[in-house]
């Protein structure tokens, strides 16, 4: 998450870097070694089938020969093994995420219209048939991931949603992740991790057959597997590492700004965090406050490395410059903590999801409580793409119904264009209908 050099040249004199990243290479840079390893694994699994999947599961995750699919009772009763407060929080997150997805779905309406007498065209939304969701459960189990992938797919009407989640040291699934999948409506769950899990779902080695779409976050190997499997299946998007950016002015609380920057830096040592502010005093205060909070932060080894290597603070001369700089970054998560929040909301266009005002924080969406989806574009992808939503699971299928009386208007123009292109068969499809119309 870095500014475009050409933009910095154009804005020269209107901003000042206060803290720059220690590492100049992009944090999401593709690793050729990872790509080669994933390619070899996918080829092996495509040829070797489930035996190859289980061989990799044994090699990488300590698979011990037990069934990889969890029975329905184990999935349904996973909540019984959780503390009551965690169970209630998971239920609330699942409910909020489904509610927002349902509201999105209500605004995606089928329609038809008559463009000219006898020419009726339209569109209907049809869900994909099968979805495979990857539910991370490594160093930081992403409990809410099931809300965003499984739950939203079910709201969209996807008939079959299978999930894979990596085994824990005891060989089973993480119960919090499993319960989140259960309350989200998952159909089947398999204890498989990494590349082998994605390949198994894509090639139809687990579940009811090959999935049509793979969704969910993961490490560099998971992201690379999705990249290479795209085309064989659809994917939600290529995302990661997690990013956060904040626009703030002199009214912002540096303690909250620092905490929110570290909240996303905690995802991993290569997670970027950026502040653009119109207040030089706030810029200095946030840098000092981040250092202060890191002293007692339990995850300071992770968040501190991310802040050192990929953190930045930039002073902008005015709000127009601040907005221009931020739209260039196009961050995954963007917080606006200013006296002009509405102005920024109207002005900004490039972000994955926006968090407005001092009472908003990215963690509310990360954990599913805000209801919005946390699977979002990174590495500048927000300049051209949106995050995962109910619409991603729906195919907007168009149709046309043409009556006899519309033939002259359509056929004549198609004949002229087809003849100019030298496409005689296209022309014939029109002229034959003209002859029958007469």
From TrEMBL:
Binds 1 zinc ion per subunit. Pathway: Amino-acid biosynthesis; L-histidine biosynthesis; L-histidine from 5-phospho-alpha-D-ribose 1-diphosphate: step 9/9. Keywords: Amino-acid biosynthesis, Histidine biosynthesis, Metal-binding, NAD, Oxidoreductase, Zinc. Coiled coil: none annotated. Its cofactor is Zn(2+). One of its GO terms (biological process) is L-histidine biosynthetic process. One of its GO terms (molecular function) is histidinol dehydrogenase activity. Pfam families: Histidinol_dh (PF00815). GO terms for cellular component: cytosol. The active site is at residues 332-333. Substrate binds at residues 242, 264, 267, 333, 366, 421, 426. NAD(+) binds at residues 134, 196, 219. InterPro entries: Ald_DH/histidinol_DH (IPR016161), Histidinol_DH_CS (IPR001692), Histidinol_DH_monofunct (IPR022695), Hstdl_DH (IPR012131). It comes from the Bacteria. Catalyzes the sequential NAD-dependent oxidations of L-histidinol to L-histidinaldehyde and then to L-histidine. PANTHER family: HISTIDINOL DEHYDROGENASE, HISTIDINOL DEHYDROGENASE HDH. NCBIfam families: hisD (TIGR00069). This is Histidinol dehydrogenase.
